[in-house]
Amino acid sequence: MQFGIFSIGDVTPDPTTGRTPTERERIKAMVAIALKAEEVGLDVFATGEHHNPPFVPSSPTTMLGYIAARTEKLILSTSTTLITTNDPVKIAEDFAMLQHLADGRVDVMMGRGNTGPVYPWFGKDIREGINLAIENYALLHRLWREDVVNWEGKFRTPLQGFTSTPRPLDDVPPFVWHGSIRSPEIAEQAAYYGDGFFHNNIFWPADHTKRMIELYRARYAHYGHGTPEQAIVGLGGQVFMRKNSQDAVREFRPYFDVAPVYGNGPSLEEFTRQTPLTVGSPQQVIEKTLSFRDYAGDYQRQLFLMDHAGLPLKTVLEQLDLLGEEVVPVLRKEFAKDRPADVPDAPTHSSLLAGREVTTV
């Protein structure tokens, strides 16, 4: 099982000081956080993609390429690549290039995004969001697997005898996660291709997450990729820790109250009851994260959001120390207990390459 962090890259004033970091400071902080993730033994760093204030990560492959040059083991991913508004040809080429630079330490999470104005900024119609996601990914899937592509669809100009370059490293495309909070069509899409399904459940109660994952697992089996239990599932999560839970609640409350993703909504106490958000001690984080398996089954990837809402970089790095030293080692051990032998590990470039070599022998 893989553990890591994802960032939405928001530039938010620190409510305790009133200071807002510059865009440069926030971008550099994201890099520092990724480097810290590798240092403390996490497996994955993932960045979102946004094209509107107050967010900065508009070019994920640029950031991930820079991080690749400064890390050795960390898997570099997106927590959203906008399959709806990005051109599939550009996605194919950008991420294949990143694969080569990172020696295969790359995967990608497709998503539609949740910012409506992005669609017209890139010449798209939000009312076609699902159809764009389906058609664009169908093309991307072929571009990574066929040396010469002839293609015609509804949303872009046709391709005739087209070869995207560079080709995927070792002829193995990056593993794809399809991320969705609320769209069963995306769970169906992930199942159809035998790809991973990532439910970023930081806003949602467990019963909703359970229904989405069960749908994906059932359809994964329907399409002949394996049993429902062998489907590849990832979950989001959100934590803030201190040694003493009361200190964690007191320190995090002002950040929670103004957070751009949920501020001015339910109280901190209501939100922690209803969603995976955990604010407390490392042991409380361990207990709540382990409970995800009760409704998600045995899954492959757990990512945490830790660097948003104006939290200072120093505080985030302290959080990562706690996560790496006190939380993840216990989670690795506990999630491994009673894990059925036929439940696959999270895919990596090496495992996908090995699987490809077996099937071609």
Offer a quick outline of the entry.
The protein is of the alpha/beta class and 361 residues long. It is 44% helix and 15% strand. The chain has helices at residues 23-39, 60-68, 88-101, 118-121, 129-145, 184-193, 206-222, 245-258, 268-274, 282-296, 313-336, 349-360, and strands at residues 2-7, 44-47, 75-78, 81-82, 107-111, 149-151, 159-162, 175-179, 196-199, 233-241, 278-280, 301-305.
Task: Draw up the topology in text.
Layout: E1 2-7, H1 23-39, E2 44-47, H2 60-68, E3 75-78, E4 81-82, H3 88-101, E5 107-111, H4 118-121, H5 129-145, E6 149-151, E7 159-162, E8 175-179, H6 184-193, E9 196-199, H7 206-222, E10 233-241, H8 245-258, H9 268-274, E11 278-280, H10 282-296, E12 301-305, H11 313-336, H12 349-360
Helix pairs in contact: 1-11, 2-3, 3-5, 6-7, 10-11
InterPro entries: Bact_Lucif_Oxidored (IPR050766), LLM_FMN-dep_put (IPR023934), Luciferase-like_dom (IPR011251), Luciferase-like_sf (IPR036661)
Pfam families: Bac_luciferase (PF00296)
Domain Luciferase-like: 1-294
